[in-house]
Specification:
Blueprint (H helix, E strand, L loop, with lengths): L2 H16 L7 E5 L2 E7 L18 E6 L12 E4 L2 E11 L2 E8 L3
Antiparallel strand pairs: 1-2, 2-3, 3-6, 4-5, 5-6
Amino acid sequence: MSKSKFQEILQVDINNVFFNVEEFAEVVLVNGQEMEVVFDTDVINQSDTSRQLAAFDVAFYTKTDNFEHIPQSEMLMKLNDETFRIKSVNENMGMVTIGLSRLDS
């Protein structure tokens, strides 16, 4: 199987399974735009005692296509009704991973 064929198959899985709201995703407002996201609870702050170990207050995956321009670190991002500072942005294979910190952190 060629690399491009594999990437096509992977992209179909990403769209139809990973970002399927009946599977893993949920629809939220990101900067006022509805989009399917998958939250990553493994890298978020669970409590004040674990704050030193966790990287972000909120981390999520979404499709790269959801953005006209990929957000950059240190920009502000509104997630539903709360504003955060972007601490990490990684783009890979049609997905973007965004790590956010609360403004009061």
